[in-house]
Amino acid sequence: MPVLKNKTPIPEQPVEERIKNFEEVALGYTEEQALIEANRCLQCKDAPCIKGCPVNIDIPTFINLIREKRYDEAIKKIKESNNLPATTGRVCPQETQCEAYCTLKKIGEPVAIGRLERFVADYEINRGYDIPKIMKKYNKKVAVVGSGPAGLTVAGDLARMGINVTIFEAFHEPGGVLIYGIPEFRLPKRIVRTEVEYIKSLGVEIVTNIVVGRSITIDELLKEYDAVFIGTGAGAPQFLNIPGENLIGIYSANEFLTRVNLMKAYKFPEYDTPVKIGKIVGVIGGGNVAMDAARTALRLGAKEVHIIYRRTEQEMPARYEEIIHAKEEGIKFNFLVSPVRFLGDIEGRVIGIELQKMTLGEPDESGRRKPLPIPNSNFVFSLDMVIVAIGTVPNPLIKMTTPDLLVDNRSGVILIDKNTGKTSKEKVFAGGDVTSGSATVINAMGAGKIAAKNIFKLLVGE
Amino acid sequence: MFKIIEKKALAPKVKLIKIKAPLISKKALPGQFVVLRIYEKGERIPLTIADKDPSEESITIVFQEVGKTTKLLGKLDTGDSILDLVGPLGNPSEIEKYNVVIGVGGGVGIAALYPILKALKEKGNYVISVIGGRSAEYVIFREEIEKICDETYITTDDGSLGRKGLVTDVLKELLETRNINRIWAIGPTIMMKVVSDLTKSYNVPTIVSLNPIMVDGTGMCGGCRVNVGGKIKFTCIDGPEFDGHLVDFDELLLRLKSYREEEKLSLKLFEESEGEEIASFEE
């Protein structure tokens, strides 16, 4: 039988329905679909896909196990390298990672590795997950700061190696960006909770409502723990710093998404946290967070949602799949325009945005062509809500209270040795967005794995 | 869960609760605040720490019942618990020897002012307080304040206690006649604005403690951003105390009204179905 050129499509909620609810958009493969897709895999000897995976999942082996319907073993194989497969199966940018290296790309589309990962992860969640036996326990304690993808990975890996781990989380619920940032329709919170439960089942203790840097400092943690891992992410929103930015109706994407996702403002007034939804919403930025915010605003009843981006579609950092979903749902894209100032009414509410037209120049340090303003091209765009999604930087609280921790002054990221995750401070490791600036879930997990290995080496030896 | 170990009514709709919180009690410094969430469906609200007692591992907060969350909080009793409590948050007050300091307090702000004045006194300052309320019963923490301050002046709108008038009337006289080195003003935003406007003309450094709408309290949402000297500052991590002469109070006053309609709706539904609400969070 010849190899099918295209990926087996994944069933999705119809557009006209999904824009009215927060249910997941992609519904996941049926067993039949998963088997068809798994059979497309060529089982390449050199497995090029693995080198695209930041946590080195043995991809051909798990796909072969699916082919043989040995799903229990398939998920076990994935979990040797990845503690959060139901999450990564949904939110990883596979197109630039594992799938980018798939041999099948030479004749058509790559194997849908992410969808297959999700299939077996969901299979395990539905039947109840296995708790791996921990062979040997060591009398060592590690504190992990932050319960996002990096922290959960470090904690999970160390726990499986026999180290005692306590995670400190500032919010009332663990999961970090998986809980407060990524919307329900892309990553259901019940999935995140199950993954967190799995980490806890390995013996990891999670303490919520602790803001490290305020409630307790890194130095105080070091008195009680043998090592500390900082995985606090890039949680501080950036603003444009243009006039009118404090008008009512202008949110950072972090605030908007936190209100909706973590605090469940989409269920106001059943839940007490409100959120304002405008009729015409402008979302500034072109990344995944901008797409998430735009699609969330649409689901909450906005009449029109506009992406406002200063470059073109080609330079957008958002995943292709997210852009397609946003377009299908009716999000409007405005390219080559940059905000100059916001306009407000007498009550301080935003009523418009002044935009300047841009053109693309030479590539800048990010490799993308740099937007250049076109003189005298300003115009006013009427809207009544704005979400600023132009990126986040690490929260400064730990830096402020740990003077001997070296941090890049410009970007605010904690400086580490990338090969080990070691910071400038003894026994303190870091990884994820707090060391890289905002990146992906899987990169944070990759950094977490490296740190876990090196923390173990420090405390126990090779 | 964080247990309420004491509860007192201080004035109409103003309550004091002591909450068992060992870590926060150990750490809290004057000027800092906590964020709490009462129950699963609740919102997160910031409240200033009015006092702490490390020996019984407690913190004290004083609040006015305004909306649903504070009304719900007011219904809790000794022995009840709060689901989430996080802190201490924000920067502590800069307690130094300034020489002569005035603390201006209004409403529940008097309770927030108390630990700061206490620390200023311990540092060797001559501390004058000017506290006020609508009428006598609203002037809370009077005894505590009088005990630690070298001079205490009280004003009420109706003259039922102290002098009839506003805190700024007394403040103006003090500024005219005395040499004042620093002022702390904590109370309703409009009071802090009026005080700051007044002290600016006398060029006396004035610290205000802002209470904007907040979600996380840790610097990750920016909902509490204020304009201080033309720069965006986050009240939760850059404040809550700022130089009153640089704060754009007019903008803050507008932003405080962001959710007026939603707050009204929430309160209305709460008052209509009070019994059920209480039952559901006690589960």
What does the model show?
- The complex is a heterodimer of chains A (462) and B (283).
- By secondary structure, chain A is of the alpha/beta class.
- Chain A contains 17 helices and 16 strands.
- Chain A has helices at residues 15-18, 31-38, 48-51, 59-67, 71-79, 85-91, 113-127, 149-160, 177-180, 189-201, 218-224, 253-262, 288-299, 320-328, 397-401, 433-436, 441-459, and strands at 141-145, 164-168, 205-207, 227-230, 236-237, 250-252, 280-284, 304-308, 332-334, 337-344, 350-363, 369-373, 379-382, 385-388, 392-393, 428-430.
- In chain A, strands 3-2-1-4-16 form a five-stranded parallel β-sheet, with helices on both faces. In chain A, strands 6-14-7-8-9 form a five-stranded parallel β-sheet. In chain A, strands 10, 11, 12 and 13 form a four-stranded antiparallel β-sheet that branches.
- The mean pLDDT of chain A is 94.
- Chain B has 283 residues and is of the alpha/beta class.
- Chain B folds into two domains: 2-89, Elongation Factor Tu (Ef-tu), domain 3, CATH 2.40.30.10; 100-256, Nucleotide-binding domain of ferredoxin-NADP reductase (FNR) module (Rossmann fold, 3-Layer(aba) Sandwich), CATH 3.40.50.
- In chain B, the strands form three sheets. In chain B, strands 6-1-2-5-4-3-7 form a seven-stranded antiparallel β-sheet. Chain B has a seven-stranded mixed β-sheet with strand order 11-10-9-8-12-13-16, with helices on both faces.
- In chain B, strand 4 and strand 5 (58-64) form a beta hairpin.
- Chain B is globular and about 55 Å long.
Q: State the helicity of chain A in percent bands.
A: 25-40%
Summarize model confidence as the mean pLDDT of chain B. Answer: 94
Q: How many β-strand runs of chain B?
A: 16
Supply the CATH superfamily name of the largest domain in chain B: Nucleotide-binding domain of ferredoxin-NADP reductase (FNR) module
N-to-C series of helices and strands of chain B: EEHEEEHEEEHEHEEHEHEEEHEHHH
CATH topology of the largest domain in chain B: Rossmann fold
Number of domains of chain B: 2
Q: Any idea what the shape of chain A is?
A: globular
Oligomerization category of the chains in this entry: heterodimer
Largest sheet of chain B, order of strands side by side?
Answer: 6-1-2-5-4-3-7
Helical segment count of chain A:
17
| Rg result of chain B | 18 Å
Instruction: Describe the main β-sheet of chain B briefly.
Output: 7 strands, antiparallel
* Mean pLDDT reading of chain A: 94
Q: What percentage of the residues of chain A does DSSP assign to strands (E)?
A: 15-25%
Largest sheet of chain A: 5 strands, parallel
Q: What is the strand tally of chain A?
A: 16
Query: Given this structure, which CATH class of the largest domain in chain B is correct?
Result: Alpha Beta
Distance between the termini of chain A: 48 Å
Approximate helicity band of chain B? 25-40%
